[in-house]
Amino acid sequence: MKAEFSNAHDTSGTTLHRFSAFLLASVVLILVILASPSWILDPYNKLFPKSHETFEITPVTRENASAIFNTVQGALRNKNAQIEPIGVSFIPAYIPEGTLLYHGNGDGQIPEGPEWIAMDHEFSQNFIADRAGPHIGHGHRSSTRAAEKGRGHPGRFHGPPRDSEDKHTSLLTFRVKKPLSRMILLDGSSAAKTETGEMDQQYILAGIENVSSPFVGERESSVKICEWGKQFGLDGYIRVEVGFEVVICDFFDKLELTSNVTLDWGNNTLNLPLELTDEHLMDEYASLWDSVSAMGSYDWAKMGNVHDKREGRILLDFSKLQTMLNRTYVGTDPYTRRIYNVSKDLRQDLKRDLAQSLEGGVDPYGGTNWQLLTTEIVDKFSPILQMINSSLSDEHSDGVSKAKNLTVFTTNFVRRFLSWEEGASIEERILAAKNRALEQYVHPLQPLRSKSDALILSSIRRVTQMIIETVFDSFFVSRDILDDYFLKNEIDFTGLDELKYQVVDLLEVLRWESTYYTCSSRCSWDEICYTPSWGPSPLGWDSSFGTFTDSYGKVRISAELQCVSYKTILALGHKEW
């Protein structure tokens, strides 16, 4: 594989050179393979079996590389999708046999056309639990949350709007009897039902130019997307709201109904009448049910929070990823970028490529799970970069103290790769060390299977190269300062100013807010660190909870996330609708 750092020794040649003293001519090849796993895993190496087509490293700008890196890292992670809300990519996905899926509606019937289904029963139950039947306190002081939740919204999934007061809602459980092997994950907050870009991917797949409202648009889109997908057997597509939901094109094809629960009315569940004659007790009764309703919303939010780490029941095939990134210019800000306005030719090209990639089905087991690499990179380097940035930004710290901090933060990493080699110049050793670091963190786990694999590999390499460069620069800038300090020479601190700019620039390009945004205090056992969402949610749809408006009028998620319990939801009085 061609090294990203120029003028470096060829890593495979270096490996052979190091082991040449130990190898007998008859077993050279075998020992090299055993001793150099990262080298043999290089899909460009002639010793590794290749597919019929060779996929070369793809030129990619650092901004696009970062966006593709974040697409891979954020896939199936609720928190990432909310903090990077406007998605621009389409990732073929696979839901294994045996997976349970949940659908709530007002008639207990299996949907006959495209419909929404949730990965968590709390998700579906929260929308339909109080949609039908009378409410506690009806005619006196209706339970606020239950009355509002029961109101529903025209066109919203999980069944029709609120039914008459003598009806019941149902929660259906389905089991996947045959793998859903032709699914599409839409990245970003793709179930937000907004007009600001979160729905763009669906409009492109559906071929919709203009919609009267996001609600109408998502219903119309689901029908048109499933019609488009009939040509290659599309099973459906996956979106995030608070937790993940799936649009199933045909409920009778690969699903089987395993449970159909008709939900009783709230008062019957508590074995109490709708109203009490004692007004004081009636207020307590209604307040109690408000708390029960708030707890249902909290349960939904908690499951979404669980999937901040990742929705593990869905598998991905990154080798079939299709994206507008690297096809055309896409803005770097995931809050403002749009793809609905790309040319018709680009739309058609992407849909054609996506259809072709799904035609043979998704194989999530045969290629490289690139998210394993991105996660290791983020876990390793995000703390280091934060520590470096924090130290350089400390106005109360002098230059020597900053240099000492940087030395503490970076020495062990640099030392691990900076090999002592007699006769080699320091420049040669540094370049070789950077390449060793790059090859350790960026290597395919399987041969590349597609141009998408090559694009992802190229992007991860570009991002990791920038990070390694900055870590090494931090070490050597601080080393030069401390050399002069301890040897009592005149010290030049200008390198720290240049390094500070370099680090800030890198962090702006990386956009790792989904990693850095967190609650400053540890949440209690009955709380979650809540990431706000952009569609219907436990804390309200248009809620300002956990967000701020920037100088351009754009609402964004605050870096300081907040701990939330059911009492928070109850106190705010927000509803899903």
Structural description of this entry:
This protein is an alpha+beta fold and 577 residues long. Among the domains are: 187 residues, no CATH class; 214 residues, no CATH class. Helix content is 43%, strand content 11%. It contains 19 helices and 14 strands. About 11% of the residues have low confidence.
> What would you call the quaternary organization?
single chain
Proportion of helical residues: 40-55%
Count helical runs. Answer: 19
- Unreliable stretches (pLDDT < 50, length at least 5) are 8-52, 145-163
Based on secondary structure, the structural category is alpha+beta
Transmembrane segments: 21-41
Keywords: Membrane, Transmembrane, Transmembrane helix
InterPro entries: YOR389W-like
Biased composition (Basic and acidic residues): 160-169
List the helices and strands and how they pair.
Layout: H1 11-19, H2 28-35, H3 37-40, H4 62-74, H5 78-83, E1 89-95, E2 100-105, E3 115-118, H6 121-128, H7 144-151, E4 170-176, E5 180-186, H8 200-206, H9 214-229, E6 236-240, E7 244-248, E8 255-262, H10 266-269, H11 279-306, E9 315-316, E10 322-323, H12 344-359, H13 370-392, H14 399-417, H15 426-441, H16 451-486, H17 494-510, H18 513-516, E11 528-530, E12 547-549, E13 555-557, E14 562-564, H19 566-572
Parallel strand pairs: 5-6
Antiparallel strand pairs: 1-5, 1-9, 1-10, 2-4, 3-7, 4-8, 6-7, 11-14, 12-13
Helix pairs in contact: 4-13, 4-16, 6-11, 8-9, 11-19, 13-14, 13-16, 13-17, 14-16, 15-16, 16-17
